[in-house]
Amino acid sequence: MDRNLALEVIRVTEAAALYASRYMGRGDESLASDAAVEAMAEVFTSVSVDGRIVISADNEKGILHAGSEVGNQNGLAVDIALNPLEGKTTCANGGQNAISAVAIGERGAFYNAPNIYMEKIAVGADAKGVIDITQPPDINIKRIARAKGKYIEDLTICVLDRERHRKLIDVIRGTGARIKLIQDGDISGAIAAAMEDKPVDILMGVGGAMHGILAAAALKCLGGDIQARFVYRDEEDRELVRMSGEKDLERIYSISDLACGDNIMFSATGVTDGEFLSGVRFFSGGATTYSVVMRSKTHTMRFITATHHFDYKPIY
After folding, report:
1. What is the CATH classification number for the domain harbouring 51?
2. pLDDT digit of tens for each residue in the chain (316 aa)?
3. Are 210 and 196 within one domain?
4. Phi and psi (nearest 5°) for 19?
5. Is there a contact between 174 and 185 (Cβ–Cβ < 8 Å)?
6. Are residues 100 and 135 both part of a single domain?
7. 138 & 250 share domain
8. How many domains in the chain?
9. Residue 95, Cα to own-chain centre: how many angstroms?
């Protein structure tokens, strides 16, 4: 995949973040989400790819829905997983961890996950290969501590602050490990767990399956690891998985099952401050955005700080 494509994709997430951030703290998550989707769709029209959206997290019925085509149709044929605004509720409430994210890979690069829940455990490269989601959380914590050369008490586990995680939180506390509860944004939590300079060692818990695909794409670029399995609330969830073509409803998914191939690109821009990216900063006549772009082929990670002057960029 052409490395110049990285800068084009950054423009896509920057636009979505800029538009969504206008609605930070205004209490209307639909306005924030719609603004991100519209901006992302507009900028995608000029990106040099023959793109097909296969994962559209939190946006199943929007203009960037799964199955729609994006790009100018003149470039490489690619599959796209995206979330124009992950953390729309926290963005609307003025919270943390809202980002705009896009992953691009060759055709067939992403598992076609239905919009249900997945249990996930994600780590960085230093704990790759030691996680086993079929084992209890305390066993995984001990294994990861050993792999990272840390005391358990020095580990920090990122968990979504949800009622469904009460038992998991009690187990983690019983090991002596630290916990960082987040209101939203388990993509950010998973990525932070794979970055050495971030205060998170592990992501654990249940979140959206589509978000797991985006997290896996980023972790593939970072050399990290993730395991996941579907969580079924009812028979309808099971039927959705069957309809996706999956026959083994109890399957354990590895990182290569979720994001296969060695030519994946991931881009994200912060909307509000979070675990690994700062949010949009406005100044008179413009704004500053903070983004990251990664490539699995080279494991290159670039942080990009961009200054946008609105008088010269009418789309904003």
Report:
1. 3.30.540.10
2. 666 788 889 999 999 999 999 999 999 999 999 999 999 999 999 999 999 999 998 776 679 999 999 999 888 999 999 999 999 999 999 999 999 999 999 999 999 999 999 999 999 999 999 999 999 999 999 999 999 999 999 999 999 999 999 999 999 999 999 999 998 889 999 999 999 888 899 999 999 999 999 999 999 999 999 999 999 999 999 999 999 999 999 999 999 999 998 899 999 999 999 888 999 999 999 999 999 999 999 999 999 999 999 988 766 5
3. yes
4. -70, -45
5. no
6. no
7. yes
8. 2
9. 17
Contact yes or no for 5/79 (Cβ under 8 A)? no
Please write down the HEC assignment for all residues of the chain. CCCCHHHHHHHHHHHHHHHHHCCCCCCCHHHHHHHHHHHHHHHHCCCCEEEEEEEECCCCCCCCCCCCEECCCCCEEEEEEEEEEECHHHHHCCCCCCEEEEEEEECCCECCCCCCEEEEEEECHHHCCCCCCCCCHHHHHHHHHHHHCCCHHHCEEEEECCHHHHHHHHHHHHHCCEEEEECCCHHHHHHHHCCCCCCCCEEEEEEEHHHHHHHHHHHHHHCCEEEEEEECCCHHHHHHHHHCCCCCCCCCECHHHHECCCCEEEEEEECCCCCCCCCCEEECCEEEEEEEEEECCCCEEEEEEEEEEHHHCCCC
Cα separation, 91 vs 5, in Å, equals 28
Q: How far apart are CA 308 and CA 316, in angstroms?
A: 9
Q: Examine the domain organization and report whether 23 and 47 are in the same domain.
A: yes
Q: Would you state the structure tokens that stand for residue 105, as one six-digit string?
A: 């890979």
pTM above 0.70, yes or no: yes
Q: How far apart are CA 166 and CA 101, in angstroms?
A: 29
CB 56 within 8 Å of CB 43: no
Extract the tokens encoding 23: 């609605």
